[in-house]
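Problem: given the chain below (162 residues), write out its structure.
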Amino acid sequence: MGELDHTDDSVRARAKHAFWERHANPWSGWTRTVTLPVLLYAVVHRRWRLLAATVAFTLANPILFSPPDDADAWMTKVVLAERHWRERGDELGALQLLNVGNGLATLYAVYAAYRRDVGGATVAGALAMTLKFAFVAALVRRYEDEIEWPTTPPHAPDSVAE
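Solution.
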């Protein structure tokens, strides 16, 4: 039984590692930035298939891309800093207000889109995206000295057999 539990942990750990590795691809992060505007458009115009496709893309996005070749891209650093923060469980104090504000602005944007208030959805959506970018940029700055940014592909073996 203990061995099975260890295997489950190992499988879970490998899956989690693979998730974050793939999500660190800058294409994963940058393509996700268009999901809120597309989602709001779909709600305003009652395009339910587009809404479903957007939600499906958002859920699948972190595993659609291969691991990045290095951590040079800013969006890769964003994902690595977010992972570091989540794994450590740090309290962020005032910085967390950006994240909460992002969530509230997103909820209001969806509500405004449902009411077909294009102006409200647009302003709230832009505010949500601004707050999200401010939050993740602050995470990168906060953890910049603590994270060992990989300079080689995270998926490459530690050494190459000669």
